[in-house]
Prior knowledge:
B: 121 residues
Amino acid sequence: QSVLTQPPSVSGAPGQRVSISCTGSSSNIGAGYDVHWYQHLPGTAPKVLMYRNSNRPSGVPDRFSGSKSGTSASLVITGLQAEDEADYYCQSYDSSLSLYVFGPGTKVTVL
Amino acid sequence: QVQLVESGGGVVQPGRSLRLSCVVSGLTFSGYGMDWVRQVPGKGLEWVAVIYYDGSKQYYADSVKGRFTISRDDSRNTLYLQMNSLRVEDTAIYYCASHHGSHPAGYFDYWGQGTLVTVSS
Lengths: 111, 121
């Protein structure tokens, strides 16, 4: 069972807005540790999509945005595109477990 | 561009050992902490271990502590994961990743394509 929780799946039509939540606790996100997001297509290398809650690496389209508040974070895709269909994982650090933790992943489907 | 290439995966019996390698190019390897992250096929990502940029410290997930050893050879731009006393539940795709920022903060900014380890009798 993951320390961070995410919805198993979200879906939307092209052009729509979808949001993925990542809920943690007082020993990880709530303790002030940053949240990072990764995009993963099975069979390929995962790719960092958002770092330190709301920062996009160069090359990541600005339709991706991130935020963090309290013990939760969220990733928003505005203007969903077919190539956004992938698995998305949030990640933080947990001070009680002394390890880096990932959410269980959310599969984004473009209808 | 940055490339991380893992190798060394395969099929191994429970209780046996395996060593994974990850060759890094396109970044100053000696300036980066490095991690191993694994994924059971069809499941989520699980962090395994991290080694500091200078090799001075290593940290492990409880699930592998005492059995796995992370190390690096900066002269070869190579990261290693020595896996001993392997268990069926260690079956996974193992990814190496570069660590941006210092432990316990930071994130995994470049990843390899992974190498599959199957532990089975």
